[in-house]
Amino acid sequence: MRKAGLLALGLIVCISMMAYYFDKASMLYQNNQGDVPTEEDVDIKYNTYNELNNYIVKDYAEVLNDYFENFGNGQELRFEKCFSFILRSISKCDRKNLEKAFVVSSQDPNFKSVDASLQELYPQMTELMSLLEEMRSYYLMRNYVDDDENDAKAKELHEKIVACYYVYSPLAEKYSSSLRDVAIEREKSHLRQSNKGELLIRYYCLRALIKAEDLLRNFEDKKSTFANIREEK
To answer: What local confidence, expressed as pLDDT, does residue 12 receive?
Structure first.
């Protein structure tokens, strides 16, 4: 019975100590975070950037490919007035996503190279979007019918689009590359933080077990001493 009672007492002490040190480990881990932006803030900004990047490498790339396939990617406009295709449009939602990304680029949390690359990209991408929409409207409204025989307006727009694209293209690649680097660092950081928190909790749990064993040992020693005193009497 004494052993059973001692075992129960030891279990209670051990659980109490582990709970105490677990709370201590959690508090210390949270305090070490300091003024680090919350995970939610980081996720919101990253997702905003990632949504824009997905558009750049997919839908917007298709808009550009469609244009250059039909009009050429050189300064000379390759165009036939009798054509059946319709240039892809750029939606208000796509423009809104670009504007949203530009706004968060100057806000915390700081994404360093991605923020800087987006701020470089923004004016060129905005201009290119506007030029493409102007060219699309030009052909949808059949304004080329009233243009002179040399298609002066179309040629002017095409030259601007090509020139703007060759500035835009490396900036878009720089933005995508910077965002990939951030994605890799985020994954590494998640692993480091996870391991750090886990190791800290393990450390304090181990300390709790050691403390519990020390208490039980002291209890046993005192009990033994008390028993010896009684026997001597």
So the answer is: 55
